[in-house]
User: Which sequence fits this backbone?
């Protein structure tokens, strides 16, 4: 048990760019604290869902292509174990030496070992322009354009590059920049889309799909084909976070997850990939099981 005074208290540090607030906070609560200081938290899946639900749904959000996964943008937290004990994990700084990375383990554990009470978020500078460009056309052209874009120097400046499936699949390119730089992005993407015979449209719509029902981690080279394949399931919509090699799948029936992942599971594991779902409790691998048993004994978990 850690002394009360060592727990994280709610704060914002605009110099270091970190914010501590309840894990149940939504996007509006984060923006209320961060916006007055010219800061933002770019990794959001949903405007209204609590942040803890979003973290439990997927380790990645579209902007992970630029800022990394959630585990790189949550530096600390207050955590409540199943028996009611509360512990502080991590720090309020981005880099620290703390031995075994218990923070990342708990962030990826769902509700198996308790729940997050508060997060310390790593914030980023906010600009005055957010825009999403949509490139649409033939699927083969989209594949070719995606490969070229992922290997271009522009990837360092784009918030995200997503392949969105549906009746008319498209590439969605998110830009967050000062308004005076917008013309440079627009000019590049206009010429780029024409070179692949793709139509180009722009929108200020934030386009947050919400918390996915299924997350498949593959590789950037395979992510487009994986998303298009999963989208063939009746009623499924997929968003491929292309730089990360992650597919977010949104399903009409969460009971179909086993049916969807079983045909691809072996091939996925063969390349070091995996899948997860907020609707399915994961089973530890043979290598993990002894360690998990020791941890549960240490924490007095049944």
Assistant:
């Amino acid at each position: 048990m850690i002394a009360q005074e060592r727990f994280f208290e709610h704060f914002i540090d605009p110099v270091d760019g970190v914010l501590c607030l309840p894990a149940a906070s939504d996007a509006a609560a984060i923006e209320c604290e961060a916006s007055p200081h010219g800061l933002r938290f770019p990794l959001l899946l949903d405007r209204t869902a609590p942040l803890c639900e979003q973290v439990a749904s997927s380790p990645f959000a579209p902007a992970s292509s630029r800022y990394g996964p959630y585990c790189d943008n949550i530096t600390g937290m207050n955590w409540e174990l199943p028996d009611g004990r509360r512990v502080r994990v991590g720090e309020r700084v981005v880099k620290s030496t703390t031995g075994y990375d218990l923070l990342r383990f708990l962030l990826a554990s769902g509700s198996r070992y308790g729940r997050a009470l508060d997060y310390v978020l790593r914030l980023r500078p906010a600009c005055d322009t957010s825009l999403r460009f949509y490139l649409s056309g033939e699927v083969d052209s989209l594949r070719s354009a995606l490969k070229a874009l992922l290997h271009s120097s522009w990837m360092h400046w784009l918030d995200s590059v997503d392949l969105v499936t549906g009746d008319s699949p498209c590439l969605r390119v998110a830009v967050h920049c000062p308004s005076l730089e917008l013309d440079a992005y627009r000019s590049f993407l206009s010429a780029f889309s024409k070179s692949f015979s793709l139509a180009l449209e722009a929108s200020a719509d934030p386009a947050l799909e919400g918390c996915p029902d299924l997350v498949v981690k593959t590789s950037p080279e395979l992510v487009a084909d994986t998303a298009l394949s999963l989208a063939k399931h009746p009623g499924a919509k997929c968003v491929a976070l292309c730089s990360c090699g992650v597919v977010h799948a949104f399903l009409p029936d969460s009971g179909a997850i086993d049916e969807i992942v079983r045909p691809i599971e072996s091939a996925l594991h063969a390349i070091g990939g995996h899948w997860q779902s907020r609707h399915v409790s994961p089973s530890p691998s043979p290598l993990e099981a002894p360690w998990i048993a020791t941890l549960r004994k240490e924490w007095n978990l049944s």
Summary: DSSP finds ten helices and 15 strands in the chain. Residues 4-125 form a domain with the Uridine Diphospho-n-acetylenolpyruvylglucosamine Reductase; domain 3 fold (CATH 3.30.465.10).
